[in-house]
Amino acid sequence: MKTLLELAPLVLFFIAYKLYGIYAGTAVLMLATCVQMATLYAIDKKLSAMHKATLALILIFGALTLLLQDERFIKWKPTVLYAAMALVLGVALWGFRKNFLRMMLGGQLMLPDTVWQRLTAAWVVYSLFMATLNGWVAAYWSTDDWAAFKLWGFVFPLVFIIGQGVYIARYLKDEDEDGTKDNHVPQPVSPPRDAP
């Protein structure tokens, strides 16, 4: 259910773009994202920092796209979002010794400190990759190709999320092979809900 909710604005943007063009698609994306965030808030009674940042960037870059009639703003929004996320996570981890990923998800997912550090480093690398990839597509491909990339490019976050799940699964086992409880690794409250 939540996966469909996460994908809905992107799918609606693509449909509106194909039928009516980039500006109609941008307006639909802005409206659909507002509805999406209101629904997530109604379900969870809160929005994650990532959801708030995404909403703000979509509204700001979408408004600039519509006001200035310049499609570059909406095309570069993902690059700005991913680059900002990489910068914040990297500076916090390596500059201030704070792990924002753990701060956001630590209540839902309990992992050893080294695993949180590796996950955060993976998020930094992934975010830089996605920022660069979107920037390259936005700069050198047509708007039609960029829109198709946004729809079918969802495979990148999906692979990243699955890879994280495979990596952390071994740290979430509550029993060793001999059937005794593993007291070295705290158990999760619930799986993580958000991923950019």
Give a quick summary of the entry:
With 196 residues, the protein is an all-alpha fold. Helix content is 74%, strand content 0%.
Structure characterization notes:
The protein is mostly helical and 196 residues long. The protein has one domain (2-169). It is 74% helix and 0% strand. It has 8 helices and no strands. The protein has helices at residues 2-20, 22-44, 49-68, 72-95, 100-105, 113-140, 143-152, 155-169. The chain is globular, with a radius of gyration of 19 Å.
User: Outline, from the CA principal axes?
Assistant: globular
Main pleated sheet: none
First-last Cα distance = 17 Å
Unreliable stretches, pLDDT < 50, 5 or more residues?
A: 175-196
Q: N-to-C SSE series? A: HHHHHHHH
Rg, please?
19 Å
Q: How many strand units? A: 0
What are its keywords?
globular, mainly alpha, 8 helices, 196 residues, disordered C terminus, 74% helix
Topology at a glance:
Layout: H1 2-20, H2 22-44, H3 49-68, H4 72-95, H5 100-105, H6 113-140, H7 143-152, H8 155-169
Helix pairs in contact: 1-2, 1-7, 2-3, 3-4, 4-6, 6-8
